[in-house]
Design brief:
Its EC number is 5.6.2.4. The chain is 45% helix and 12% strand. It has 29 helices and 20 strands. The strands form 4 sheets. It has a 6-stranded parallel beta sheet, with helices on both faces. It has a 6-stranded parallel beta sheet with strand order 7-12-11-8-10-9, covered by helices on one side. The relative contact order is 0.09.
Length: 712
């Protein structure tokens, strides 16, 4: 086979046309699985085959992993010439350019350092320093920088935005104090260099051919640089799919791709219409979804005629059942991805995989749910309960809720006193010198409450920390002070409450969290089961895909919709694209799961489920029809109750009027009848109810708390 035959082998006519398109600005627009990345790789080989020196090519990929894969594929075919190719992300290629042009690039802050800097800045302001908060702020800073917006140019009015600008400024000055750059500074520097004609002209000639994968996710600064680099020779070859643009929150915008002919009027557009990845059924389903987006370029989409099952819906009762159901399928060893909108959602599946000792891989950069700061706070209480000498834990929670112990002298005094009086730091606290009566009161309460945690099951202990000890109160005041969204602050704790159900006591929960972290650290990249966010799944493919937690508020995610009215429609469409990206990763099986409850509360399915034709008729893969009907009949007001016994804590009330003789529906025990409500009838804080369930030997006690849905 000649070189040319080889590089065109196995391609269809459209793909061949793309690979061999005349040299000049070319854009391949095509749907998922149509061979864009394949064509791009072959185009490189084609150019080399045409005698173009390898060092004149610049090949841009979206991730480092993709660059590595691309290089490996090319090396297999043309090992000698591939070495000289410039393959990488925008960041890595631009960095190379800066260095080669003699620019003294200061040391770069990696993600870990950026995180550390942001963490310090947040800590100085007494703000939470967990990964999610840190990455939210870093993303926002990235969004600004990728649009070329410097802190001084930010218009701010709301408290939240003032806080952001302050952090952005502090972040920038912290960087220059340390004499460092972040990766976005590379883009800005190259952008600035492009204004110097000599510099620009050098690089225009050096990289005669520019090729870009996933072009739909390019941002303003990157785009402007690219246009300048390609302006002279106009050898630009890009592939992308506007329907898969999912990084709008970092500044990427598919309009740069759709309007590429504005800067390159002679643009050749090539369309690939055959999806080689997925079955006809899956192509049709994803098409049905994405059709709802208004701002998109319609593309022809055909399959290869391979048939398979329809999209499968799961409607488990809750996250735990969702995880269990998925695990029963995994025994077949099929290559599987479990995808989700936010990493918290992976908690139940990860827990179940760890418990069942099934090897799995979590995409790098996603850390354990148990590292969330609220969870770590609750864990600090539990640690203290089992080890009254755990000073770190004590320091962590001493003012959560406020106990007004700010001057750090108490730490030494407490140690000294504990040593003298026999051990427990907690016991030593209220006896410290110079305390005000209110401080003594708070500290005595803490001393009495914490040891009680050892007598409870893990779920009760978590609830006790939140409700009685007052951790929820702390979060409420924290939300007020920082203008944060309270529901988001509570979310990890609601999730923790579910996780805790599996453990006889807090110590068991702590040990499990440690085991999860250990497994994540030693995550097995070759395992057939892979977990990742929808974002990270871009460009990849798997035999079977699960998308879990398809709920309203989750997809579209409520936080991504907290934007100005005029941006709402766009944000909504980006969330739809995210689901589309997830669904189109599947080759043969795609499972969409909508549990009936999430973190103990009844939740509506994602509006996208309806667009996919789900929801008219409710299906359940597990709940017997009888139980389902019963649930629907009774559930007018849904609330979860925390059993004082070790019972499962899910209760549904038929109405807010809770009185003896009325029936309640328990998710596991079925319909029971209320024996007693004390002191008064009704769902209200502090009321206790006694419920008898048929088939249970004992009646069960529940106590209702301040909030419906969070009962202790
Ligand atoms: P995405 O939009 O998800 O990034 P893509 O358009 O880049 O997808 P590829 O990843 O290049 O698509 O290809 C999808 C799958 O189809 C791959 O497994 C690839 O090997 C296969 N494929 C591509 N073209 C052909 C072809 N002509 N014949 C058979 N298989 C093909
Ligand atoms: Mg691709």
């Amino acid at each position: 086979m000649s070189g040319m035959e080889m590089l065109l082998s196995g391609l269809n006519d459209e793909q061949r046309k793309a690979v061999t398109a005349p040299i000049g600005p070319t854009a391949v627009f095509a749907g998922p699985g149509s061979g864009k990345t394949t064509v791009l790789t072959r185009r490189v080989l084609y150019l080399l085959e045409q005698g173009i020196p390898a060092n004149q090519l610049m090949l841009v990929t979206f991730t480092r992993a993709a660059a590595r894969e691309m290089r490996e594929r090319l090396e297999q075919v043309m090992p000698a010439r591939t070495r000289e190719l410039a393959v990488g992300t925008f960041h890595s290629l631009f960095l190379q350019m800066l260095r080669e042009s003699g620019c003294n690039v200061p040391p770069l802050m990696g993600q870990a350092e950026q995180t550390a800097v942001m963490r310090d800045l947040l800590a100085e302001r007494e703000l939470p320093t967990d990964e999610e908060t840190v990455s939210t702020y870093l993303n926002q800073i990235g969004l600004c920088k990728n649009n070329g917006i410097l802190p001084a140019r930010l218009r701010v009015e709301k408290q939240k935005n003032i806080l952001f600008r302050d952090l952005y400024m502090a972040y920038e000055s912290m960087k220059s104090e340390r004499g460092m750059w972040d990766y976005d500074d590379i883009l800005l520097a190259v952008h600035a260099c492009c204004r110097q004609s000599e510099w620009l002209s050098h690089w225009q000639t050096k990289f005669l051919h520019i090729l870009v994968d996933e072009f739909q996710d390019i941002n303003r600064v990157q785009y402007e640089i690219l246009v300048k680099l390609a302006a002279k020779h106009r050898h630009l070859f890009v592939v992308g799919d506007d329907d898969q643009s999912i990084y709008g929150f970092r500044g990427s915008d598919p309009k740069f791709m759709l309007e590429l002919n504005k800067d390159f009027p002679e643009l050749t557009r090539i369309i690939l219409s055959v999806n080689y990845r997925s079955t006809e059924e899956l192509i049709q389903a994803s098409e049905q979804l994405i059709r709802h987006n208004r701002r998109r370029q319609r593309k022809p989409r055909a399959g290869t005629g391979v048939r398979g099952p329809d999209v499968k819906w799961m409607e488990p009762l809750d996250e735990e059942e969702e995880a269990e159901q998925i695990l029963t399928h995994l025994t077949d060893g099929m290559e599987t991805a479990i995808l989700y909108r936010t990493s918290t959602q992976a908690r139940a599946v990860v827990d179940a995989l760890v418990r069942k000792r099934i090897p799995f891989m979590v995409a790098s950069g996603e850390s354990s749910f148990y590292r969330r700061w609220q969870v770590q706070d609750v864990f600090a209480y539990l640690k203290l309960a089992w080890n009254s000498q755990d000073l770190d834990a004590l320091v962590r929670i001493i003012n959560k809720p406020k106990r007004y112990l700010y001057n750090e002298d108490w730490i030494d005094a407490c140690w000294a006193r504990a040593k003298k009086h026999g051990g427990s730091l907690l016991a030593a606290l209220p006896g410290l010198d110079g305390l005000e009566p209110y401080q003594i009161r708070y500290l005595s309460e803490l001393r009495d409450q914490v040891p009680r945690l050892t007598e409870m099951n893990a779920e009760e202990a978590v609830a006790y920390i939140r409700e009685r000890i007052g951790y929820d109160r702390y979060l409420e005041s924290f939300a007020k002070e920082t203008g944060s969204d309270l529901a988001s602050l509570f979310e990890p704790l609601d999730e923790l409450a579910l996780a805790a159900r599996h453990f006889a006591n807090g110590q068991g929960l702590l040990a499990h969290a440690q085991e999860v972290e250990r497994q994540l650290r030693h995550s097995d990249a070759t395992a057939p089961v892979k977990l990742m966010t929808l974002h990270r799944s871009k460009g990849l493919e798997f035999d079977r895909v699960y998308i879990i937690g398809l709920h309203a508020m989750v997809l579209p995610h409520h936080r991504s919709l907290q934007v100005s009215e005029q941006r709402k429609a766009a944000a909504w469409e980006e969330e739809r694209r995210l689901l589309y990206v997830g669904m189109t990763r599947a080759k043969t099986e795609c499972w969409l799961s909508v549990s009936q409850t999430r973190q103990g509360k009844r939740v509506a399915p994602s509006p996208f489920a309806k667009e996919l034709g789900h929801g008219g008729e409710r299906m359940s893969t597990s709940a017997p029809l009888e139980r389902k009907r019963e649930l629907e009949r009774t559930a007018q007001v849904f609330t979860s109750a925390r059993a004082m016994s070790k019972a499962q804590p899910q209760l549904r009330f038929a109405s807010e009027e809770v009185a003896p003789g009325m029936s309640v529906n328990h998710i596991r025990f079925g319909v029971g009848s209320i024996v007693e409500v004390t002191p008064l009838a009704g769902v209200a804080p502090g009321r206790k109810i006694l419920v008898r369930f048929p088939g249970q030997t004992q009646s069960l006690h529940y106590e209702l708390s301040r909030q419906l849905g969070l009962l202790s």
